[in-house]
Design brief:
The protein is an alpha/beta fold and about 260 residues long. About 40% of the residues lie in helices and about 20% in strands. It has eleven helices and eleven strands. The strands form two sheets. A six-stranded mixed β-sheet has the order 2-1-3-10-4-11. A five-stranded mixed β-sheet has the order 7-6-8-5-9, sandwiched between helices. α3 packs parallel to α4. The longest helix has 24 residues. About 40% of the residues are buried.
Length: about 260
């Protein structure tokens, strides 16, 4: 009797031990992703879970903020940036595995207004007077050009138009592209410079026009595996999924363009 009790207890301990090991191994990767990827990433996560994988965990913010968090030791397994310079930043500091870096997504820079705006769509050229469109005292919302990718793209486009010096004092500088979009949705800014995918995802704004491709550097999204996740098979598999052919239709559904890595 005593022996049967001991055997049952040992079996229970083994069962609990196995369950604990499975639970520990079932943790999904932590992904630091640019705010403009929010909707696409959440949908991809659902598709990944449907394949029997553990749910990934996300931190969405400006690429600049995420890169600096990684530099300070934040436990990211995958980094998805909204521009190449911030991926360069973490790569130069040895925070990613260089061979895993790949850029498969592209976006467009657009001008938006609140959904109830009376402004009509237009073709943006060097002659487009953005301050006139914004109205007296009106501000133009975008990311902070000092560090937020969409703001850096906006500064390049405004410089190409010859309007940077005039427009800079009237910018509403947000900490990421979704915050800039929210300012326009609320009517707190009559214009916003955001990505095409963010404009398409919002019912609170109307698309006025796209900035010419030659007005700013290409909007591309590099992905990479963090160095700390080098031995994490689940993180590697999810990175391959995010940048592979299976994810492409979903990215297109959210308005991203695909490019060869």
């Amino acid at each position: 009797m005593h022996r049967r009790v001991l055997l049952a207890a040992a079996a229970a301990l083994l069962l609990l031990s196995g369950t604990g090991a499975r639970a520990q191994g079932a943790e999904g990767p932590t992904v630091f992703a640019a705010a403009s990827l929010t909707d696409a990433m959440r949908a991809l996560a659902e598709a990944w879970r449907a394949k029997g994988h553990p749910a990934p965990r996300f931190s969405f913010a400006a690429s600049s903020a995420l890169a600096r968090q990684m530099e300070q030791g934040a436990p990211a397994d995958i980094f998805a940036s909204a521009d190449e310079p911030w991926m360069d930043y973490v790569q130069q500091r040895g925070l990613i595995l260089d061979p895993t870096r790949r850029s498969v997504l592209a976006n467009r820079l657009v001008l938006v207004a609140p959904a109830d705006s009376r402004l009509a769509p237009l073709a943006i050229t060097r002659q487009t007077d953005l301050l006139a469109l914004a109205g007296e005292g009106g501000r133009i919302a975008t990311g902070d050009p000092s560090n937020v990718p969409v703001g850096k793209y906006a500064q390049a486009a405004l410089s190409w138009m010859g309007q940077w010096e005039r427009v800079a004092p009237r910018l509403a500088r947000a900490d990421n592209v979704r915050s800039a979009l929210l300012l326009v949705e609320r009517g707190e800014a009559p214009l916003g410079i955001v990505y095409a995918t963010d404009a398409a995802a919002s019912r609170g704004v109307t698309l006025l026009g796209s900035f010419p491709a030659e007005s700013h550097p290409p909007v591309t999204y590099p992905f990479a595996l963090a160095r700390r996740a080098g031995g994490n098979a689940e993180a590697r598999a999810f990175l391959d999924f995010l940048t592979g052919a299976e994810a492409a239709p979903l990215y297109r559904r959210f308005g991203f363009a695909l490019q060869a890595p």
